[in-house]
Amino acid sequence: METIIFLTDFSIAARHAFDQLLTIAKRTKINNVIIYHSLAYFNSKFYNTGDFMLPPPVIDEMEIEDVKGKLRLLKQELLTVSPITEVSAHYDLLTVMDGVLRISENEKIDLIVVGLRGSDDGGKNSVGSTTVDLIESHAFNLLLVPEMNPAHLYKKALLAVDLSHLHERLPVKTIFQMQELLSLEWHVVNVSVLGQQSAAQLIEEQSFLHSSLDSLEPNYSYLEGEDIVSKINTYVEDHHIDLLVTAPRKLGFLATLFRKSASKKLAVHTRVPILMLVP
Q: The whole model's pTM is what?
């Protein structure tokens, strides 16, 4: 894995995500990690789940020094776990999305790691506007780590796919790179709503899915119905899944679950990290 960006606002949720990054670093070779913090808004705009946006704060030297110290400690902690990894830490006054886009001008970003808050709404996760922006941009692979989830090794992965136009967006190469790094036991489920595709289309997409992934020897299942989120989470619990992997279309079924209008149900209810892959 070449370059990972870890986004932090130094919250408890971000710490959970960092612990997960440390766990990955212990197990796999990561060449480059960029730790990024935005000073653009209070709470970095990072976990702001409401519509009200606070104005940009006045940043003083004491706050800058505090940020520098926290970033330095994170950098040292990661280097202790993975001394072969090149680790850099950045902060600026850009929004998180703009900061990530600027980094991407000079670096090929393989993965962005971000935390989900787990203490609100009766213990459920909450998804901030920046995370939603990253999801809807559909430009980067994202690892979303829920706050209530302890850092652990990934042993079982569930790939949840919508078969519609799967041949255009299934990141087969990335999936096999993950397998090479993590040696996972794979489960693959089709989460299409019943009746969305013709029989001929389903046969074609299923054939592509099997020809692409059968060498992983996955367990295949098909989840049909309207409340797909509930069915996915039940499958995760019943099969002791460690990582939920999705390959949504930019404006497809799973992607829309993260919009405010759809309550971002999958992320809100997850108890395992979600890895969202782009083609």
A: 0.83
